[in-house]
Amino acid sequence: MVKVYNLYLTWRELDKALRPFEGPKRHWLYGNAHEFLEERSDLDIMVRHAEQYPYSYPIWLGNFFAGLAVCHPEYAKAVLSRQDPKDAFSHYFITPWIGKGLLVLSGQKWFHHRRLLTPGFHYDVLKPYVTLMSDCVTIMLDKWERLIPDENPVELFHHVSLMTLDTIMKCAFSSHSSCQLDSESPYIKAVYELSRLVDHRFYFIPYHNDLIFHLSPHGYRFRKALKTAHEHTDKVIKERKQSLKNEMELEKIQKKRHLDFLDILLCAKDENGQGLCDEDLRAEVDTFMFEGHDTTASGISWTLYCLAKYPDYQEKCREEIRDVLGERTTVEWEDLSKLPFTTMCIKESMRLYPPVPEIARELKEPITFCDGRSLPKGINIFLSIYAINRCSSIWDDPEVFDPLRFSPENSFKRNSHAFLPFSAGGRNCIGQNFAMNEMKVAVALTLQRFELRPDPKREPKIVSQLVLRSLNGIYINLKKL
Protein backbone atom coordinates (compact mmCIF):
# COMPACT_ATOMS: atom_id res chain seq x y z
CA MET A 1 0.00 0.00 0.00
CA VAL A 2 2.88 2.36 0.78
CA LYS A 3 4.34 1.85 -2.71
CA VAL A 4 0.97 2.44 -4.35
CA TYR A 5 0.50 5.64 -2.35
CA ASN A 6 4.00 6.86 -3.30
CA LEU A 7 3.27 6.19 -6.99
CA TYR A 8 0.06 8.17 -6.65
CA LEU A 9 1.99 11.09 -5.15
CA THR A 10 4.51 10.91 -7.99
CA TRP A 11 1.73 11.02 -10.58
CA ARG A 12 -0.02 13.90 -8.83
CA GLU A 13 3.15 16.01 -8.60
CA LEU A 14 4.03 15.40 -12.26
CA ASP A 15 0.49 16.10 -13.41
CA LYS A 16 0.36 19.36 -11.45
CA ALA A 17 3.77 20.51 -12.70
CA LEU A 18 3.06 19.79 -16.38
CA ARG A 19 -0.59 20.90 -16.47
CA PRO A 20 0.18 24.44 -17.75
CA PHE A 21 1.80 22.96 -20.86
CA GLU A 22 -0.54 21.80 -23.60
CA GLY A 23 0.51 18.59 -25.31
CA PRO A 24 -0.57 15.47 -27.20
CA LYS A 25 -3.40 13.43 -25.71
CA ARG A 26 -2.12 10.64 -23.49
CA HIS A 27 -3.43 7.14 -22.90
CA TRP A 28 -4.73 6.48 -19.38
CA LEU A 29 -2.15 3.68 -18.90
CA TYR A 30 0.66 4.09 -21.45
CA GLY A 31 0.83 7.86 -21.52
CA ASN A 32 2.44 8.73 -24.89
CA ALA A 33 4.67 5.62 -24.96
CA HIS A 34 2.40 3.75 -27.38
CA GLU A 35 3.05 6.40 -30.07
CA PHE A 36 6.73 5.52 -30.12
CA LEU A 37 5.90 1.84 -30.66
CA GLU A 38 3.44 2.46 -33.47
CA GLU A 39 5.53 4.73 -35.71
CA ARG A 40 8.80 4.22 -37.58
CA SER A 41 10.80 7.05 -36.07
CA ASP A 42 10.74 8.63 -32.60
CA LEU A 43 12.28 11.71 -34.24
CA ASP A 44 9.37 12.09 -36.68
CA ILE A 45 6.96 12.11 -33.73
CA MET A 46 8.95 14.84 -31.99
CA VAL A 47 8.95 17.00 -35.13
CA ARG A 48 5.21 16.52 -35.66
CA HIS A 49 4.41 17.50 -32.08
CA ALA A 50 6.82 20.46 -32.28
CA GLU A 51 4.79 21.88 -35.20
CA GLN A 52 1.59 21.58 -33.16
CA TYR A 53 3.06 22.79 -29.85
CA PRO A 54 5.79 25.22 -30.96
CA TYR A 55 7.50 25.86 -27.61
CA SER A 56 7.18 22.68 -25.58
CA TYR A 57 4.86 19.84 -24.66
CA PRO A 58 4.71 17.12 -21.97
CA ILE A 59 5.80 13.59 -22.79
CA TRP A 60 4.46 10.77 -20.58
CA LEU A 61 6.05 7.33 -20.65
CA GLY A 62 3.43 5.53 -18.61
CA ASN A 63 1.89 7.38 -15.69
CA PHE A 64 4.91 7.76 -13.44
CA PHE A 65 7.70 9.01 -15.71
CA ALA A 66 7.24 12.27 -17.59
CA GLY A 67 9.08 15.38 -18.66
CA LEU A 68 8.81 18.48 -20.80
CA ALA A 69 9.96 18.22 -24.42
CA VAL A 70 11.51 21.52 -25.50
CA CYS A 71 11.40 22.42 -29.20
CA HIS A 72 12.02 26.20 -29.39
CA PRO A 73 15.28 28.20 -29.17
CA GLU A 74 14.04 30.54 -26.42
CA TYR A 75 13.04 27.64 -24.20
CA ALA A 76 16.37 25.93 -24.99
CA LYS A 77 18.22 29.13 -24.04
CA ALA A 78 16.46 29.25 -20.66
CA VAL A 79 17.49 25.65 -19.93
CA LEU A 80 21.07 25.73 -21.23
CA SER A 81 21.97 29.03 -19.58
CA ARG A 82 21.78 27.22 -16.23
CA GLN A 83 23.98 24.56 -14.67
CA ASP A 84 21.37 21.83 -14.25
CA PRO A 85 22.84 18.31 -14.41
CA LYS A 86 22.09 15.90 -17.20
CA ASP A 87 19.24 13.63 -16.23
CA ALA A 88 20.37 10.51 -14.39
CA PHE A 89 18.17 8.05 -16.30
CA SER A 90 19.58 8.63 -19.80
CA HIS A 91 23.18 8.10 -18.60
CA TYR A 92 22.53 5.33 -16.06
CA PHE A 93 23.28 2.53 -18.51
CA ILE A 94 26.52 4.01 -19.81
CA THR A 95 28.04 4.99 -16.45
CA PRO A 96 29.49 1.49 -15.77
CA TRP A 97 31.60 2.00 -18.90
CA ILE A 98 32.60 5.67 -18.85
CA GLY A 99 32.38 6.21 -15.10
CA LYS A 100 31.57 9.59 -13.62
CA GLY A 101 33.44 11.82 -16.01
CA LEU A 102 32.60 15.19 -17.50
CA LEU A 103 29.57 13.84 -19.38
CA VAL A 104 27.62 12.78 -16.29
CA LEU A 105 29.12 14.86 -13.46
CA SER A 106 27.38 17.89 -11.99
CA GLY A 107 27.97 20.58 -9.40
CA GLN A 108 31.37 21.48 -8.01
CA LYS A 109 33.05 18.27 -9.15
CA TRP A 110 31.96 18.88 -12.75
CA PHE A 111 33.32 22.43 -12.55
CA HIS A 112 36.63 21.14 -11.12
CA HIS A 113 37.04 18.55 -13.91
CA ARG A 114 36.02 21.00 -16.63
CA ARG A 115 38.63 23.50 -15.47
CA LEU A 116 41.36 20.84 -15.39
CA LEU A 117 40.45 19.47 -18.84
CA THR A 118 40.00 22.77 -20.70
CA PRO A 119 43.76 23.27 -21.42
CA GLY A 120 43.70 19.95 -23.31
CA PHE A 121 41.58 21.62 -25.99
CA HIS A 122 43.59 24.83 -26.44
CA TYR A 123 44.41 25.56 -30.07
CA ASP A 124 48.14 25.09 -29.36
CA VAL A 125 47.32 21.49 -28.43
CA LEU A 126 44.86 20.97 -31.30
CA LYS A 127 47.18 22.39 -33.97
CA PRO A 128 49.49 19.36 -34.45
CA TYR A 129 46.50 17.01 -34.43
CA VAL A 130 45.50 18.13 -37.94
CA THR A 131 48.35 16.21 -39.57
CA LEU A 132 47.46 13.08 -37.60
CA MET A 133 43.82 13.48 -38.64
CA SER A 134 44.93 13.67 -42.27
CA ASP A 135 46.94 10.46 -41.89
CA CYS A 136 43.95 8.62 -40.40
CA VAL A 137 41.58 9.84 -43.13
CA THR A 138 44.09 8.80 -45.80
CA ILE A 139 44.14 5.23 -44.44
CA MET A 140 40.34 5.13 -44.77
CA LEU A 141 40.41 6.54 -48.31
CA ASP A 142 43.06 4.01 -49.35
CA LYS A 143 40.72 1.26 -48.13
CA TRP A 144 37.89 2.75 -50.18
CA GLU A 145 40.07 2.86 -53.28
CA ARG A 146 40.66 -0.87 -52.94
CA LEU A 147 36.89 -1.42 -52.70
CA ILE A 148 35.99 0.52 -55.84
CA PRO A 149 36.68 -2.28 -58.37
CA ASP A 150 33.83 -4.26 -56.74
CA GLU A 151 31.42 -1.52 -57.91
CA ASN A 152 29.42 -1.93 -54.72
CA PRO A 153 28.27 1.03 -52.61
CA VAL A 154 30.33 1.73 -49.48
CA GLU A 155 28.62 1.77 -46.08
CA LEU A 156 30.02 4.95 -44.54
CA PHE A 157 29.40 4.66 -40.82
CA HIS A 158 31.44 1.51 -40.22
CA HIS A 159 34.53 2.85 -42.00
CA VAL A 160 34.21 6.39 -40.65
CA SER A 161 33.75 5.29 -37.03
CA LEU A 162 36.91 3.16 -37.25
CA MET A 163 38.71 6.21 -38.65
CA THR A 164 37.50 8.53 -35.87
CA LEU A 165 38.46 5.90 -33.27
CA ASP A 166 41.91 5.68 -34.87
CA THR A 167 42.15 9.49 -34.73
CA ILE A 168 41.26 9.61 -31.04
CA MET A 169 43.81 6.94 -30.21
CA LYS A 170 46.60 8.72 -32.09
CA CYS A 171 45.78 12.33 -31.24
CA ALA A 172 44.60 12.09 -27.66
CA PHE A 173 46.69 9.17 -26.40
CA SER A 174 49.65 8.97 -28.83
CA SER A 175 48.73 5.31 -29.33
CA HIS A 176 50.04 3.56 -32.43
CA SER A 177 46.57 2.40 -33.34
CA SER A 178 46.00 0.12 -36.30
CA CYS A 179 42.28 -0.28 -35.73
CA GLN A 180 41.35 0.65 -39.30
CA LEU A 181 43.39 -2.24 -40.62
CA ASP A 182 42.87 -4.55 -37.64
CA SER A 183 39.35 -4.15 -36.32
CA GLU A 184 39.80 -7.51 -34.55
CA SER A 185 41.81 -5.81 -31.79
CA PRO A 186 40.24 -6.85 -28.44
CA TYR A 187 39.95 -3.24 -27.29
CA ILE A 188 38.34 -2.02 -30.53
CA LYS A 189 35.89 -4.92 -30.45
CA ALA A 190 35.10 -4.11 -26.80
CA VAL A 191 34.34 -0.44 -27.60
CA TYR A 192 32.03 -1.46 -30.44
CA GLU A 193 30.33 -4.08 -28.27
CA LEU A 194 29.77 -1.65 -25.40
CA SER A 195 28.27 0.98 -27.71
CA ARG A 196 25.81 -1.55 -29.16
CA LEU A 197 24.84 -3.06 -25.81
CA VAL A 198 24.29 0.28 -24.07
CA ASP A 199 21.98 1.35 -26.86
CA HIS A 200 20.13 -1.99 -26.86
CA ARG A 201 19.61 -1.85 -23.10
CA PHE A 202 18.22 1.69 -23.28
CA TYR A 203 15.50 0.69 -25.75
CA PHE A 204 14.71 -2.81 -24.40
CA ILE A 205 12.53 -2.06 -21.38
CA PRO A 206 13.06 -5.35 -19.43
CA TYR A 207 16.82 -4.63 -19.41
CA HIS A 208 16.18 -1.47 -17.38
CA ASN A 209 16.08 -3.84 -14.42
CA ASP A 210 19.67 -4.42 -13.26
CA LEU A 211 19.06 -8.05 -12.21
CA ILE A 212 17.38 -9.05 -15.49
CA PHE A 213 20.17 -7.43 -17.52
CA HIS A 214 22.87 -8.97 -15.32
CA LEU A 215 21.45 -12.50 -15.79
CA SER A 216 20.93 -12.10 -19.55
CA PRO A 217 23.40 -13.11 -22.31
CA HIS A 218 23.69 -9.43 -23.19
CA GLY A 219 24.64 -8.62 -19.59
CA TYR A 220 27.38 -11.25 -19.70
CA ARG A 221 28.75 -9.82 -22.96
CA PHE A 222 28.60 -6.32 -21.48
CA ARG A 223 30.65 -7.30 -18.41
CA LYS A 224 33.18 -9.12 -20.58
CA ALA A 225 33.65 -6.13 -22.90
CA LEU A 226 33.75 -3.79 -19.90
CA LYS A 227 36.61 -5.75 -18.36
CA THR A 228 38.60 -5.58 -21.63
CA ALA A 229 38.00 -1.84 -22.08
CA HIS A 230 38.88 -0.92 -18.48
CA GLU A 231 42.02 -3.09 -18.46
CA HIS A 232 43.18 -1.35 -21.64
CA THR A 233 42.51 2.13 -20.23
CA ASP A 234 44.26 1.30 -16.94
CA LYS A 235 47.27 0.00 -18.87
CA VAL A 236 47.51 3.14 -21.03
CA ILE A 237 47.32 5.41 -17.96
CA LYS A 238 49.84 3.35 -15.99
CA GLU A 239 52.39 3.33 -18.82
CA ARG A 240 52.02 7.08 -19.43
CA LYS A 241 52.37 7.84 -15.72
CA GLN A 242 55.64 5.91 -15.70
CA SER A 243 56.80 7.74 -18.81
CA LEU A 244 56.04 11.13 -17.26
CA LYS A 245 57.80 10.10 -14.06
CA ASN A 246 60.91 9.18 -16.01
CA GLU A 247 60.87 12.40 -18.03
CA MET A 248 60.42 14.43 -14.84
CA GLU A 249 59.09 17.55 -16.53
CA LEU A 250 56.39 18.25 -19.09
CA GLU A 251 58.68 20.69 -20.92
CA LYS A 252 61.16 17.91 -21.70
CA ILE A 253 58.38 15.80 -23.26
CA GLN A 254 57.23 18.74 -25.35
CA LYS A 255 60.65 18.96 -26.98
CA LYS A 256 60.34 15.33 -28.14
CA ARG A 257 56.70 15.29 -29.30
CA HIS A 258 53.47 17.25 -29.12
CA LEU A 259 51.54 17.11 -25.86
CA ASP A 260 48.39 15.05 -26.05
CA PHE A 261 45.16 14.98 -24.05
CA LEU A 262 46.45 12.29 -21.71
CA ASP A 263 49.65 14.22 -20.89
CA ILE A 264 47.63 17.27 -19.91
CA LEU A 265 45.13 15.16 -17.98
CA LEU A 266 47.87 13.51 -15.92
CA CYS A 267 49.72 16.75 -15.22
CA ALA A 268 46.68 18.94 -14.54
CA LYS A 269 46.61 20.48 -11.07
CA ASP A 270 44.25 22.98 -9.49
CA GLU A 271 45.29 25.96 -7.35
CA ASN A 272 45.73 23.60 -4.39
CA GLY A 273 48.03 21.30 -6.34
CA GLN A 274 45.28 18.68 -6.55
CA GLY A 275 45.04 16.53 -9.68
CA LEU A 276 42.65 13.75 -10.69
CA CYS A 277 42.62 10.43 -8.84
CA ASP A 278 43.02 7.17 -10.79
CA GLU A 279 39.27 6.54 -10.89
CA ASP A 280 38.59 10.03 -12.27
CA LEU A 281 41.41 9.67 -14.81
CA ARG A 282 39.92 6.47 -16.18
CA ALA A 283 36.46 8.03 -16.31
CA GLU A 284 37.69 11.01 -18.36
CA VAL A 285 39.72 8.82 -20.74
CA ASP A 286 36.77 6.47 -21.32
CA THR A 287 34.39 9.43 -21.69
CA PHE A 288 36.60 11.02 -24.32
CA MET A 289 36.87 7.71 -26.18
CA PHE A 290 33.08 7.33 -26.19
CA GLU A 291 32.15 10.94 -26.98
CA GLY A 292 35.00 11.58 -29.39
CA HIS A 293 34.49 8.90 -32.00
CA ASP A 294 30.82 7.98 -32.48
CA THR A 295 29.44 11.53 -32.51
CA THR A 296 32.08 12.75 -34.98
CA ALA A 297 31.59 9.64 -37.12
CA SER A 298 27.89 10.47 -37.31
CA GLY A 299 28.62 14.06 -38.35
CA ILE A 300 31.09 13.04 -41.09
CA SER A 301 28.91 10.20 -42.45
CA TRP A 302 25.79 12.34 -42.78
CA THR A 303 27.77 15.21 -44.34
CA LEU A 304 29.19 12.92 -47.03
CA TYR A 305 25.70 11.52 -47.61
CA CYS A 306 24.28 15.05 -48.09
CA LEU A 307 27.06 16.03 -50.49
CA ALA A 308 26.42 12.83 -52.47
CA LYS A 309 22.74 13.84 -52.77
CA TYR A 310 23.52 17.40 -53.87
CA PRO A 311 26.24 17.24 -56.54
CA ASP A 312 26.23 21.00 -57.25
CA TYR A 313 27.18 21.75 -53.63
CA GLN A 314 29.65 18.87 -53.69
CA GLU A 315 31.42 20.35 -56.72
CA LYS A 316 31.48 23.83 -55.18
CA CYS A 317 33.15 22.38 -52.07
CA ARG A 318 35.62 20.48 -54.25
CA GLU A 319 36.61 23.66 -56.11
CA GLU A 320 37.19 25.45 -52.80
CA ILE A 321 39.26 22.54 -51.48
CA ARG A 322 41.39 22.41 -54.64
CA ASP A 323 42.04 26.15 -54.41
CA VAL A 324 43.29 25.73 -50.83
CA LEU A 325 45.16 22.40 -51.01
CA GLY A 326 46.43 22.43 -54.58
CA GLU A 327 48.31 19.17 -55.10
CA ARG A 328 48.81 18.54 -51.38
CA THR A 329 47.16 15.44 -49.92
CA THR A 330 47.46 16.55 -46.30
CA VAL A 331 45.43 19.27 -44.62
CA GLU A 332 47.33 21.76 -42.46
CA TRP A 333 46.13 23.91 -39.58
CA GLU A 334 46.13 27.10 -41.65
CA ASP A 335 43.87 25.47 -44.26
CA LEU A 336 40.94 24.98 -41.89
CA SER A 337 39.93 28.65 -41.84
CA LYS A 338 40.05 28.86 -45.65
CA LEU A 339 37.13 26.49 -46.28
CA PRO A 340 34.06 28.65 -45.54
CA PHE A 341 31.66 27.02 -48.00
CA THR A 342 32.70 23.50 -47.00
CA THR A 343 32.14 24.52 -43.36
CA MET A 344 28.66 25.82 -44.26
CA CYS A 345 27.84 22.45 -45.86
CA ILE A 346 29.02 20.61 -42.73
CA LYS A 347 26.83 22.83 -40.54
CA GLU A 348 23.79 22.40 -42.78
CA SER A 349 24.30 18.62 -42.65
CA MET A 350 24.42 18.79 -38.85
CA ARG A 351 21.21 20.84 -38.89
CA LEU A 352 19.34 18.16 -40.82
CA TYR A 353 21.17 15.26 -39.18
CA PRO A 354 22.44 16.39 -35.74
CA PRO A 355 24.93 13.82 -34.35
CA VAL A 356 23.31 14.15 -30.91
CA PRO A 357 19.61 14.65 -31.69
CA GLU A 358 18.42 15.21 -28.12
CA ILE A 359 19.81 16.05 -24.70
CA ALA A 360 18.20 15.99 -21.28
CA ARG A 361 18.46 17.95 -18.03
CA GLU A 362 17.02 17.51 -14.55
CA LEU A 363 15.96 20.78 -12.96
CA LYS A 364 17.71 21.43 -9.66
CA GLU A 365 15.84 24.71 -9.17
CA PRO A 366 12.51 26.03 -10.49
CA ILE A 367 12.57 27.64 -13.94
CA THR A 368 10.41 30.30 -15.59
CA PHE A 369 10.29 30.49 -19.39
CA CYS A 370 9.95 33.48 -21.70
CA ASP A 371 6.14 33.16 -21.89
CA GLY A 372 5.76 33.15 -18.10
CA ARG A 373 5.11 29.43 -17.63
CA SER A 374 7.15 27.70 -14.93
CA LEU A 375 8.31 24.30 -13.76
CA PRO A 376 9.35 23.22 -10.26
CA LYS A 377 12.67 21.57 -9.48
CA GLY A 378 13.00 17.83 -10.08
CA ILE A 379 11.29 17.83 -13.51
CA ASN A 380 13.14 16.34 -16.48
CA ILE A 381 13.62 18.42 -19.63
CA PHE A 382 14.04 16.68 -23.00
CA LEU A 383 15.61 19.15 -25.41
CA SER A 384 14.95 18.02 -28.99
CA ILE A 385 17.76 19.45 -31.10
CA TYR A 386 16.39 17.49 -34.06
CA ALA A 387 12.96 19.17 -33.76
CA ILE A 388 14.41 22.67 -33.29
CA ASN A 389 16.51 22.16 -36.43
CA ARG A 390 13.41 21.31 -38.49
CA CYS A 391 10.99 23.87 -37.06
CA SER A 392 9.24 25.82 -39.84
CA SER A 393 8.81 28.91 -37.65
CA ILE A 394 12.61 29.18 -37.33
CA TRP A 395 13.89 27.82 -40.65
CA ASP A 396 12.46 28.56 -44.12
CA ASP A 397 11.80 25.27 -45.95
CA PRO A 398 13.44 23.28 -43.13
CA GLU A 399 13.63 20.01 -45.09
CA VAL A 400 15.65 21.65 -47.88
CA PHE A 401 19.45 21.34 -47.82
CA ASP A 402 20.69 24.93 -48.09
CA PRO A 403 24.25 25.67 -46.87
CA LEU A 404 23.72 29.43 -47.33
CA ARG A 405 21.67 29.41 -44.13
CA PHE A 406 25.08 29.51 -42.44
CA SER A 407 26.55 32.41 -44.39
CA PRO A 408 27.74 35.18 -42.01
CA GLU A 409 24.81 37.48 -42.82
CA ASN A 410 22.18 34.76 -42.29
CA SER A 411 23.82 33.40 -39.14
CA PHE A 412 23.86 36.89 -37.64
CA LYS A 413 20.07 37.22 -37.98
CA ARG A 414 19.26 33.86 -36.38
CA ASN A 415 18.42 33.13 -32.74
CA SER A 416 21.60 32.16 -30.87
CA HIS A 417 20.02 28.85 -29.77
CA ALA A 418 18.45 27.84 -33.07
CA PHE A 419 21.47 25.69 -33.99
CA LEU A 420 22.94 23.59 -31.16
CA PRO A 421 25.08 20.76 -32.60
CA PHE A 422 27.40 20.94 -29.59
CA SER A 423 24.81 22.16 -27.05
CA ALA A 424 25.40 25.61 -25.49
CA GLY A 425 26.11 27.35 -22.22
CA GLY A 426 28.51 26.17 -19.54
CA ARG A 427 27.92 22.48 -20.32
CA ASN A 428 28.60 22.74 -24.05
CA CYS A 429 30.81 20.14 -25.72
CA ILE A 430 34.40 20.66 -24.60
CA GLY A 431 35.69 18.88 -27.72
CA GLN A 432 33.69 20.79 -30.34
CA ASN A 433 36.75 22.40 -31.99
CA PHE A 434 38.48 19.01 -32.18
CA ALA A 435 35.35 17.54 -33.81
CA MET A 436 34.87 20.38 -36.32
CA ASN A 437 38.54 20.20 -37.34
CA GLU A 438 38.25 16.46 -37.91
CA MET A 439 35.09 16.86 -39.98
CA LYS A 440 36.72 19.49 -42.20
CA VAL A 441 39.78 17.31 -42.75
CA ALA A 442 37.69 14.23 -43.57
CA VAL A 443 35.39 16.05 -46.01
CA ALA A 444 38.25 17.91 -47.72
CA LEU A 445 40.40 14.85 -48.35
CA THR A 446 37.43 12.71 -49.40
CA LEU A 447 36.17 15.20 -51.99
CA GLN A 448 39.71 15.73 -53.26
CA ARG A 449 39.94 12.05 -54.17
CA PHE A 450 36.39 10.84 -54.88
CA GLU A 451 33.17 11.84 -56.53
CA LEU A 452 30.26 10.85 -54.27
CA ARG A 453 26.92 9.61 -55.58
CA PRO A 454 23.89 8.41 -53.61
CA ASP A 455 22.65 4.82 -53.71
CA PRO A 456 18.97 5.15 -54.71
CA LYS A 457 18.23 1.58 -53.61
CA ARG A 458 19.25 2.23 -49.98
CA GLU A 459 17.72 5.39 -48.60
CA PRO A 460 18.85 5.74 -44.96
CA LYS A 461 16.30 5.11 -42.20
CA ILE A 462 17.13 7.65 -39.51
CA VAL A 463 17.22 6.45 -35.92
CA SER A 464 18.49 7.91 -32.66
CA GLN A 465 20.82 5.35 -31.00
CA LEU A 466 22.94 7.40 -28.58
CA VAL A 467 23.97 9.23 -31.76
CA LEU A 468 22.08 9.71 -35.04
CA ARG A 469 22.48 6.62 -37.21
CA SER A 470 20.65 4.75 -39.96
CA LEU A 471 18.95 1.43 -39.32
CA ASN A 472 20.02 0.15 -42.74
CA GLY A 473 23.40 1.89 -42.97
CA ILE A 474 24.49 5.00 -44.90
CA TYR A 475 25.53 3.90 -48.39
CA ILE A 476 27.12 5.94 -51.18
CA ASN A 477 28.80 5.14 -54.49
CA LEU A 478 32.40 6.27 -55.00
CA LYS A 479 34.15 7.22 -58.21
CA LYS A 480 37.91 7.85 -58.18
CA LEU A 481 38.80 11.26 -59.59
Automatic annotation (TrEMBL):
Pfam families: p450. Keywords: Endoplasmic reticulum, Heme, Iron, Membrane, Metal-binding, Monooxygenase, Oxidoreductase. Its cofactor is heme. It is found in: Endoplasmic reticulum membrane. It comes from the Eukaryota. GO terms for molecular function: heme binding; iron ion binding; monooxygenase activity; oxidoreductase activity, acting on paired donors, with incorporation or reduction of molecular oxygen. Heme binds at residue 429. InterPro entries: Cyt_P450, Cyt_P450_CS, Cyt_P450_E_grp-I, Cyt_P450_sf, Cytochrome_P450_Monoox. Belongs to the cytochrome P450 family. This is Cytochrome P450. The lineage of its organism: Eukaryota, Metazoa, Chordata, Craniata, Vertebrata.
